[in-house]
Amino acid sequence: xxxxxxxxxxxxxxxxxxxxxxxxxQDVGERRKLRIELQERCRLTELQAVNILNGYYxxxxxxxxxxxxENERREQNNQDN
Length: 81
Fold this sequence. Notes:
- The structure is a single chain.
- By secondary structure, the chain is mainly alpha-helical.
- The protein is 72% helix and 0% strand.
- It is built from 4 helices and no strands.
- α2 (29-42) packs across α3 (46-53).
């Protein structure tokens, strides 16, 4: 099961991306592996993961993940009743 995206996770991946060799922010090699790892860890789209690695929109994506989780919880509760 995927983890909930948090600011701590976003900062961790953004920092790890900054430590990689500068390749013009291209999604290749180690940067691509890092992006895929983040996507799978937090159930993100490719665009969301790339933006987080680049230090963009983390708070927006965290809010989206929180809403998604809440909606899924509500749906599960409705199915259980």
